[in-house]
Amino acid sequence: MQNQVPTVSKIIEPLLWIFFIVSFICIPLYFIQEKVIYLGKYIRINGLSLIIFTTVGFFGALISTYSKRYLQGFTYQKRFSLFSIGFVLSVLFFVIANSSILILLSWFLMGLFMAKLIGVNADWGEARHASNYAFRFFFSSTILLGLSLSILTYYSSSFQLDYILNNLDLIPNSMLVIAAILLIIAGFIQSALFPFHRWLLSAMTAPTPASALMHAGFINGAGILFTLFASLLIRSNTLMLLFVLGGFIALIAQFVKLLQVNVKHKLACSTIAQMGFMVMQCGLGFFNAAIAHLILHGFYKAYLFLSSGEEIEMSNPNKVTKINIKIIQAFFVILFGLAGAVLFMLLTGKTSLNNTSIFLTLIVAITVGQATYNIIREKSYSFGQRLIVSISFFVIGIVLYAVFYNAVSLILNESNFVIKPHQLSLFEISFGILFLASFFLMKLGIYRNSPWLYVKLLNLTQPNKNTILKFKS
Fold it and tell me: Which residues form the signal peptide (predicted)?
């Protein structure tokens, strides 16, 4: 009987697939009608809700299908299925809540169910401790979000979210800043951003399907939270804070990712880096880009986690390859990077060079340039073949990304604060130059020449000591 799939898993899987299909069909219908649907005063379904419905529905259904076979024979498979559907429902509830109380409740439930998934194997002492350790972070995040919402609710004299955000002028500026900072910290904790990252590195006791759900959905909570409260972040002038913190987090996470030998830890650091980029996009005023980034990252990271076992089987220890780029290679890397940036600007209308949209374009240029370098150094193809592959890659990739970016922007069109670029300041320009310089120094591997820096970065990414080998005999 133990090897049979629990009935609850058999029921949940088709329901999630049906929910995904219905949500996907509703997106074009909503786009045609362009009308926010209210169910009473405290439930609201808009473009963002439908996007998250479709995304979470797909990941939930996919992981449910995967785990039905992957966890077959696992003692707690039924419990895993129940916790997974509880988490999915709490996310869906979060994006339709139009009440500060309902938002806080769903945020708490998201953390609770994720902590339960981390420790679903109750027979494993490390898993139990990792669950408790993570839940302490999630509960702290809920407290901070509760304080932020309490300030907004008290000064606006309303629990209704859209009323609060449309009447921020009723709230003193000092209270707006405090509420925004509390909200930012709450989002950072839930998304495992530095210095609140250790719960994620300690959560590797979770089954692989739970890790995929965590990295494809739960970690993205900050991006959704910041988008929901975009008007608060703009009105409180905290966007620059998000931009700078996101930049530092992205760089640090990219550095420490290169030091990891454990596949899951490497993926965890990669997720933290991507969430840092997401925070940067919010700080630039492009909340639509952040949502597009989160969805694409979710697809990519779910695939990597679900195939992590294959990676372990196939990989062999290799020496670190040093970057040794020839002049002709550097020329094509720069050329294709710039061409990709120009194509992105033309397809998305981001043609301004004096506001924050230039940073989005630079990130695209770096991504295309890095991909081009990886292709042109591949020795199994001729030089001509490598050029053709590089051109095909950046054209198809940029076109698809631009189409997806524009589609998300159109669906989120009912929000006045989804796209809010602003003029570049000298500080932002200086930080951007520092960010780019640090990125290239990291890629060149110069940090390996400093044992002190290596040890510091390695220690920064150690999980909680009680979640590894604590209860072994």
Answer: none
